[in-house]
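Listing S7. Sequence submitted for prediction.
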Amino acid sequence: MKEHSGQHVSRTASSLENVVNSCVQNDRAVGRDDAGMIYKRYYGYLFAIALRYVKSREDAEEFVNESFVRVFDKIRTFTGKGEGAEFERLFKAWMARICVNACIDYLRSKKVTQSLDDEESEIQVEDTLTTIGELLNAEDIMRLLLHLPDTQRTIFNLYEVEGYSHEEISQMLGMPASTSRTYLTRAKDKLRMLYLSRNLAERY
């Protein structure tokens, strides 16, 4: 059974590699069937990334679809090298950056970078208390992120999850690097507060 599964992964990875390399080498757009294969295989992957930046599943779906439009439009510019699983890892990382950029473009258009003072009253402890006995797991932590103000959540994701530096974030969001650091500190402080609030609710 394991051997069959491994063969399936190998064929899929090879298919992705052949599709992308063919587009790059022949300077052509991805075909409908190949686009469908890529879309189905990586929709969930990009959807999970989008949900880190927006609270609405509808918005996340919109960003994912926009991301795939960009992926298929720019697939000829992909420069990743490697074979099999390594090729797929590089391609996924490339798609992830496109998805993050799609989310950032939207958030910038909505003026996500509001003033630091405006964010002080956006989160209330009583609104974050959980019912007694609810366990805190990975999904709970992701939900805690959704309680952060947009700017804090965005910078936390860009820095802690995506690995961008504060200098890079400052260019992406049009703010000083020092402001990015301040937002990150506040995001961590509020996540700590939310975590403690949930624990208190579980105890009492």
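Caption to Listing S7: primary sequence and predicted structure tokens for the chain studied. The domain at 2-109 is CATH 1.10.1740.10 (Rna Polymerase Sigma Factor; Chain: A). The radius of gyration is 20 Å.
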